[in-house]
Specification:
By secondary structure, the protein is of the alpha+beta class. It is built from 2 helices and 5 strands.
Length: 69
């Protein structure tokens, strides 16, 4: 795994927030699993589901504003 895959995950989350989406899909890796769990723990993202070698990351909005800016 390269750092590009981590950057890709973070960009997908950022773009999802900018487009006001409810969730985004991210390809699975063990490292990304730990990172996205950490983001969820600190409430930067909502619920995280693992589905067939990918994550569905639900995005949090507080008073209509993205939880992560």
């Amino acid at each position: 795994m390269t750092n590009d895959s981590i950057a890709d995950m973070l960009i997908r989350i950022k773009n999802g927030y900018m487009a006001r989406k409810g969730s985004v899909e991210v390809p699975y890796s063990k490292f990304k699993s730990e990172l996205v769990k950490l983001l969820a723990k600190h409430k930067y993202v909502g619920r995280v589901e693992e589905v067939e070698k990918q994550f569905i990351v639900h995005l949090n909005y507080e008073e209509g504003k993205p939880a992560l800016t």
